[in-house]
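stage 2 :: seqdesign
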């Protein structure tokens, strides 16, 4: 009960923090003209980053616009440490972020696809980990319907990216990597490395709306 109340409290604070970002309206057509720095990684199937380890860059097509803005803002503020993403985010205005986010949100893979209402059945061990992390409390019962803009869709995200993200929350911001987030830091630090691997694999196996949409030059 205490853990759930804590998550609820931080959820309210996080939603308030991103209220302005959610209110700022993005323009899809304007966003399409501003993604030149994005497509070299997020527009190529299977593209891998090499810092701090090798992993597939996240699928962002179909992600909620408000979360994309929140993530970019965190890189710009230094709450997320990644040299590449920070160098990009610092060049973007709030309106730029809103436009880029609107562009990627439109790609939600929901045509002729009925997403499950709940996550798929898991082994007792994995189900216990999902419950321990209260994953569905923020990311939705199917991990693809977050309760607010501060939280991402995670169903179907690349396994290795999810693992790196969780480990970066465990690490907290170092000089060049790590993430500072009270909610996810508290969640991730409960788990061992092996448990994070199991969670990441499970998340990646769920059916969701995230995908990689190549640009014409990469198709």
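stage 2 :: out
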């Amino acid at each position: 009960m205490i853990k759930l109340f804590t998550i609820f409290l931080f959820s309210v604070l996080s939603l308030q923090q991103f209220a302005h970002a959610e209110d700022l309206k993005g323009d899809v057509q304007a966003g399409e003209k501003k993604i030149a720095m994005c497509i070299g990684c997020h527009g190529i199937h299977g593209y891998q980053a090499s810092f701090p380890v090798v992993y597939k860059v996240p699928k962002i097509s179909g992600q909620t616009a408000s979360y994309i803005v929140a993530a970019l803002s965190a890189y710009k503020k230094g709450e997320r440490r990644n040299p590449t993403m920070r160098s990009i985010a610092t060049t973007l205005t709030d309106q730029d972020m809103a436009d880029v986010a609107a562009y990627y949100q439109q790609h939600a893979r929901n045509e002729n696809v009925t997403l499950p209402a709940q996550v798929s059945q898991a082994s007792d061990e994995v189900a216990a980990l999902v419950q321990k992390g209260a994953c569905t409390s923020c990311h939705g019962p199917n991990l693809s319907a977050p309760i607010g803009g501060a939280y991402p869709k995670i169903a179907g995200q690349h396994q290795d990216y999810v693992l790196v993200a969780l480990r970066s929350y465990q690490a907290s911001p170092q000089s060049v990597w790590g993430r500072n987030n009270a909610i996810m830091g508290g969640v991730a630090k409960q788990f061992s490395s092996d448990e994070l691997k199991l969670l990441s694999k499970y998340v990646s196996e769920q059916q969701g709306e995230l995908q990689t949409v190549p640009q014409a030059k990469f198709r």
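stage 3 :: structure notes
- The chain has a mean pLDDT of 89.
- The longest strand covers residues 48-49.
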